[in-house]
Amino acid sequence: MKELNFKSIAQMHEYFGEAxxxxxxxxxxxxxxxxxETQVCENTPEPVKICNQFYSISLKNIIEGEILYGRTKYxxxxxxxxxxxxxxxxxxxxxxxxxxxxxxxxxxxxxxGYDLFNKIKKYNFFNYNANEAxxxxxxxxxxxxxxxxxIHLEYHNNQDEFSxxxxxxxxxxxxxxxxxxxxxxxxxxxxxxxxxxTRFKEVLNDYFASNKFESEGIPTVEWLSTxxxxxxxxxxxxxxxxxxxxxxxxxxxxxxxxxxxxxxxPNASISETAYKLGFEYPQYFSRLFKKKxxxxxxxxxxxxxxx
Length: 307
Known about the structure:
Elements: E1 2-6, H1 9-15, E2 26-32, E3 38-42, E4 48-52, E5 55-69, E6 72-74, E7 79-84, E8 89-98, E9 100-106, H2 116-119, E10 134-135, H3 138-155, H4 163-188, H5 190-209, H6 212-216, H7 221-228, H8 232-243, H9 247-263, H10 270-276, H11 282-293, H12 297-306
Parallel strand pairs: 1-4
Antiparallel strand pairs: 2-9, 3-8, 4-8, 5-6, 5-7, 5-8, 5-9, 7-10
Helix pairs in contact: 3-4, 5-7, 5-8, 9-11, 10-11
InterPro entries: Homeodomain-like_sf, HTH_AraC, Tscrpt_reg_AraC-type_HTH
Domain HTH araC/xylS-type: 202-303
Keywords: DNA-binding, Transcription, Transcription regulation
């Protein structure tokens, strides 16, 4: 597999035959081919793995080909946005995109001294995988293209003391819209959300049935997301959209429900129950149980005997 690791924005520009960026820490590319309906981004039979050492935001229509993450394929014939954080990677194969596309790249240092430096860490979609792209409605795509155009105009304007502040302001607007549209996407994909949550519970059930809680400990969110073929942030956001609780919350609730059953076994002790559920120290189990149920494991056993 061919691998492309772009350490700088200038290196990426050079590879794709673009002019050197006006700012080494920030660039925006607007690709349009008026003589053809589509243009080929990477039309090779072998997949290409791309990794950037900077933030990347793309707006494009995928007409043909595949973007792969593990065994999951992403393709979409509507406006789609891909967000990549530094050191993330995606695999592309035979991609054909629409005649018009936008691409923004910026180094983390470009945000130094601005509120967005810290705010950007809260946008989970930068840690989603390629198959978890943002799919835009025509109205949403028009809004996003307007923001891209505003950034493009300012970037190619005569640079002055206000330029960077204006660009970052537009960039922050773009990210706020992306956050809104992602939340809309979660709400509109309820059947997909339900399917993912069902698979999530099935993985936990299989893990418990195989006594892996006791032998390997409580599964992490990262491990569970790998079993489902999605990023851990996307999994948590999807489960939260479906249930109102994060993946960590759901794991804890699962542990408590199993604990209630185990604690009522005649020969079970609180310590044995804790170890069976993957807790290294029984006191951690007791603390979580009381937090979620309002009573200690001992009090729960006693109240159950009375009823």
